[in-house]
Design a protein that fits this description.
alpha+beta, 2 domains, ten-stranded mixed β-sheet, 12 strands, about 30% strand, two-stranded antiparallel ribbon
Amino acid sequence: MASWTTLNFHNVSTTSSKMDLFGNATITQNGQQQIKTFNMTNVDFPTDRDTLIFLKNGGHDNLTIYAGPTGITFPILPGMTIDLTRAWDLHDKPVIRTSLGTFSGYRYHTAIKSIALPTGDNLDLDFYASYEMNTGALMAGEIWATLNGSSAQIVTTQIREANLFPTQNPSRCLIATATYGSDLAPQVQFLRDFRDQKIDTTFAGSNFMAAFNLWYYSFSPSAASLISPSQNYRSIMQLLLYPLILILQASAALFDALSFQPEAAAYISGIAASGMIGIFYLWIPSILISRRYRSAMKRCLKLLLVVLCSSTVILVISEVLANPWLAELGSAAVILSNLLLFGGLLSIVPEGNSVVRWFSRKIHFHS
């Protein structure tokens, strides 16, 4: 069974709400497909605990998740009712792909074993619920059945729309918002538009953002909560982010100039942005390191060049095969290797260069 669901919440308070649920399911039985619609209105729905729709404590290893006052029935398993209000375990932290977009998430799992069937066989059911990491909202679910040693996915479902969380743009620029004080700040709007209107519109770019978000949202909520209340921290972060904003503005202009070929535009603007970021933010650390480990630095840069070339090939292959997993790997490797490569280039410029010689003398003088 494959289904999608639209949720509408009203009369929302800190402890409860009313929920209207509308859905459409395609049920396959004996090779025949049937389309069924379903709706429920004014369902009492708590807002003060972990529920099958929203998590308040996403990321914890174990949760007791509330799934409603009654059991859930499955049309493909006539007469069977399952109560999913139970303990769930954090299974993994996947990239969730839905019709709404691609998100970093938490996937929780629970299982019901040895269900006796009329045939005398025992059935095992495994339930997975995938929640968007930032909002804690359920984005997708699946059920796997195991019978006589064979497993098959019997249910998949996605949330198509809801009014209680920002489904159209769930991935917020948390650190930038905390730094500039508002989602409406021009710098935050630029970053969001660059992501949504340019990078996310391409295959390689959207898959890079999926990998990036998985890393970014692992620490950005904590960093944003530290920055937001402190004017000193906000001022420091504004200073640190200013060059990044300029670099991305230049990259956005480059993307626009090459927009007749979006995939190439995403690659070239990504190379340009990561190279400039590496030069600006990493050149001082790389020169300091190279003073002691110059030969090792040269070997590392040669290795990074090999990684850059190899990951570019992987990225091209992922485009040809339309393989999102290869695209995530290739795009992330391209950006990271290029950033580190350009960040280290100044460290191996010949000492005769006046700029490097001047900087090296300054370092030597202060040390």
